[in-house]
## 1
Amino acid sequence: MTIIMRYFFEITYNGTSYHGWQNQPNAISVQQVVEDCMTKVFRKKISITGSGRTDTGVHCVQQFFHADVEMAFDEQQWIAKLNSILPRFIGIRSISSVKPEASARYDALDRTYEYKITRVKDPIMVGHTYYFFRELDIPTMERATALLIGEHDFQCFSKVHTDVNNFICNIKQARWNQKGDLLVLTITANRFLRGMVRSIVGTLLDVGSKKITIKQFQDILKSKDRKQAGVNVPPEALYLVHVKYPKSIFI
């Protein structure tokens, strides 16, 4: 009798060469590449479900996907096999057995992103950070950022014509940290809308460069109007860094 086991795969990738995570009909996605490699390794068509989508060019320090495999296997052996045929920009870090009903997407408790801005022009960091040369009032940006904490309707920061039931998200943390020449936003929420983090950063940079006030930022948040918010900053400085799950789903 064939025994089907469900596993969580921890994955990391450089998103430069890919049109996001999600499968697309006319572009190469991370999901497509991983499914093709897993199908070769397991010698059977494998479909995977990720913890969420990332946009074109976005990087990932930690993402999870689940897959059902008709065998029990040695995790380290299969990590080595998968990494030997995956492209150099994609890597599997760990494999964990989970309960049959566990979902990498729906069981995720929260997700954390970082957005990295360099204050000094650094050609080495091109493709990994956003160079913003204008002077910034960081304390004022921090006060505006604090307004994001809690449960709000974030429609103003979402791409239009997106297929969601609602725009309510619960932001659990949002803070700026200076790390040498880097200015990094760390933001954690139960869910994120398409383009949400990049739009938030663009609007906060408007605050920091004094194009808008904190009161105007607050009005934008309440407006539910994407046209009121700032531009989307480039995707290559955005990183999905952590996905949290309840311990109860793991075996």
Note: The beta strands are 5-13, 49-50, 59-69, 90-98, 110-118, 130-131, 150-153, 168-179, 182-189, 238-244.
## 2
Amino acid sequence: MDRRGFCKTFFLLPFLAPYLNVSGQTKRGFELQLISSSPHKLIIPLLEEFWGPMLFSGKNFTFLNSHPQEKELKRVLSQNNWNHVFYPSQADLVFSFLHLLKPVPPSFTLLKNDKVRDIRSKNLLSLWKEISTTQQPSSLLTVASFNKRRPHSNKGELASVYIDGKKIGLLPLKKSYSKIFRTHRGTVEMVIDNERARVVNSSCRHKICLHTPPAAIEGERIICAPNHFLLEIEPHHLVDTIIG
């Protein structure tokens, strides 16, 4: 995926005061996406940049699945007064991870209420430049979520598509086809087959979205940050406009 015009970065992810309403409801709509083999070295600076002195009173965290750097993440978070809990229902910050299909340049981005935000903070730009020169490409995608999304195991039937945070409709997963989405910044081509959605082509530079595993389970996402494009597998009960 292309980092130009987007601080050149991927999760799926809008930082700082102009965008932040720090009410509990709003914070749960934030989701940090971080590509790095050493997320423990970045998580505290990123969290402090997002919320700074306005960090809410609850500082509990947990993991939805086993994380390769779980021990180090626990260590640095505990050193910064975060408390590890065992259940997502108790946590303010929930970590999960997945492996990309191949290593890509390190990066980070933020989603706010399903909208991919541009990153223009001097501090974050400096941090991105640092990791781009000091860290190797990585296939580890860490997701830190404040929206308390529940883990799912059911296969989805529909995928919602958002461009610039606006939901443009749904893709049915029960048939095989391809669809090209045009954004203000370029194009993203999706293919639906075997009840899974995947990106097969994009105008972005580093093609991180192409290396994201196919999405099939409720709640799974594919993000193309430079194109401000988001696809998410929806629960079965969702009814909305189908994209033809």
Note: The first strand starts at residue 30 and ends at 35.
## 3
Amino acid sequence: MRCCCSLALAAVLALTYTPAFAGISSGGPGGGASGVRAKVHLGAEGDLDGTGTAKLSLDPRRGAICFEIEVKDIDPVVAVHIHAGEAGLSNEDLVLADLDFANQGLAGCARAGRHLVESILDNLDSRSDPLQFYLHVHSAGFSTGALRGQIERD
């Protein structure tokens, strides 16, 4: 739980998309030479019919996260965030990363900051701590959250 303690004190980090980040990892969001691959199995939270998956590429050197998200059986997506929290625990007040999908669809890259990316990677490498970060998908019908899944190493 070492990364969560430092993140609880962290300021909210907003991600901003820039075309320069589109090539952050060769081979796209699924990974490449400059990014560490992670995945998310999205399960129903508010929308009980919904499912989805996400592929992430985490690049601590550039402080960026590339993402490719697929969802099924939910209303139009209105927001995608990364939060700190174990499975079953919610931390909606602290948005660590806002994946700016509105400018690029459900695939693209965004700046997240080196500290956040390193914290996620440290947690993925930890054998004793539960997964402390989750991807949260909000839809038009479920503004408080349609789908959710813990970020895990691919």
Note: Strands lie at 36-44, 51-59, 64-72, 77-84, 95-98, 107-111, 133-139, 147-153.
